[in-house]
# Entry
Amino acid sequence: MPPVWKTDMKKILDIRIQNVREKIAVDDIDTFMVSTQENRRYLSGFTGEDGQYDETAGVLFITADDLKLATDGRYTLQATEESPNYDVITYDKGLTPALPEILNDLKARRLGFEAERLSFSQYEKIRDLIQTTELKIELVATTDLVESLRIVKDKTEIDHTRQALRMAETVFSDVVRTLRPGMTEQAIAWEMEKRLRETGVDGLAFPVIVASGPNSARPHAIPGNRRVNPSEPILFDWGARWQGYCSDTSRTVILGEPDDTFLSVYQSVREAQEMAIAAIKPEMSGQSVDAVARRHIEAAGFAGKFNHGLGHGTGLAIHEKPRLSPTSDTVLTAGMLCTVEPGIYLPGWGGVRLENQVVVTNNGAEVLNRLGLDDYVIRL
Ligand code: ZN
# Structure
């Protein structure tokens, strides 16, 4: 018997596909080719992954009446099971040689493609093929077509994110209790990863960051063999995936007594986060939310020490829209999901970042995290 969620999933996919059909109709696109991995999954349920940038697990073709998923033999069974809405086509010499037949069947005239994903060489191959086979098809570049739908989450997507977050937070709470001076960043990161895997998550949303002392001044530090010491910041940034959806959290802790620098940096970051979350509401731009946190950090005497954007959306991808940053003109609406992650980084000393995930509601923001910001001192 198929699992219950599949019935719901079918309804959800029908709505998403309908939304895409309406969007492509505006640009007079009769056939839309979806090659971005996350968009493909979002519109079909097919979980095949591309492996690397020049590989593909398949593409979708969406028209007003047809849904086709073209893939190679490695994925045929999986695609058929996961995407019953779609007619699965297996190609054996790569996608491009199979295109004339597929496009002929679909009576394609204006073929929309995803400009962000199709490489220049793939584009050239398709363009040449169309010319040599005398298919009368116009190629139409699209940007953000599916991404603009993915930016607002439905209940299922928020539930999956919440579940990923629960599992990830539990692991952190357990690991942080075992921290002792002399453990290496790598060993701590591995402990996080191992326990995340053991809780049964799909996988990691990204490699775990554990950065101690001066290393924590690098926002995207890679855990190394540095040993953690008392009275220095230890920054964690980690996330899990559940049903494809990513969680993303940062916390900064200290072994033993914090000094005044730590206390003032931590307090400023914490206030910046709380103020930004309190400010979030529909109609606000990503830029203005970012400014709330940034101004507070500057006023606290740390101008120029918060050297990244305040937050980003998460979903099937770890970084998606909306962005909260000095250059983001995205206007927030209810149902958007994003991180709020201010940080202060002092070269030579270290950094503090605190990251929560929130959902924009009708009149504000709901924090999805359960893990608070109070327990940052680990007693020795
Ligand atoms: Zn993040």
